[in-house]
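Our consortium's second objective concerns turning raw sequence data into structural hypotheses that experimental partners can test. To show how far this objective has progressed, the report includes one record in full. It was chosen at random from the queue rather than selected for favorable results. The single chain below, 142 residues long, was entered without modification.
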Amino acid sequence: MLKNLSPLLSGSLLSALDAMHDGDTLTLVGSGYPENTITTPVVHLGDDTTTEAAAEAILSVFPLDNASPSPIVFLDLADEPYEVPDVAFAVNGIASDAELRRVPMTRLELDPFVELARSSSVVVRVGSDAPPCAFLFRRGNL
């Protein structure tokens, strides 16, 4: 293990993150995400890993895009325009802390989200029992 790195950041995940370019996207999915829609390499972080823990580990080394009006997109399955899932609030706070700035997020319904996720460079899957959730992180430069 490397000093000051989360143990969730495996060699395969760090390698995948390092291979990404500015503007590429990473998709973080929970256990309820439709498996048949994933077309890119998947890094599994384990059945007991939460979405929040995975986001914190990833965003500790992954720079978010500064130029994009919304470098994070989350999958919205709630059908309530003013209701944001707790996990989305948590991930937004984690991203803002990691970036030392407010990080705007956009919500998308399943079909447009899946369409964007198909072009992701890597998919990170967690196995938490949280409600189905997924996020797209757009990479920026350091």
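The partners drew two points from this record. The CA atoms of residues 18 and 44 lie 17 Å apart. The beta strands are 25-29, 42-44, 72-75, 105-108, 122-125, 134-138. Both points have been shared with the crystallography group to help prioritize constructs.
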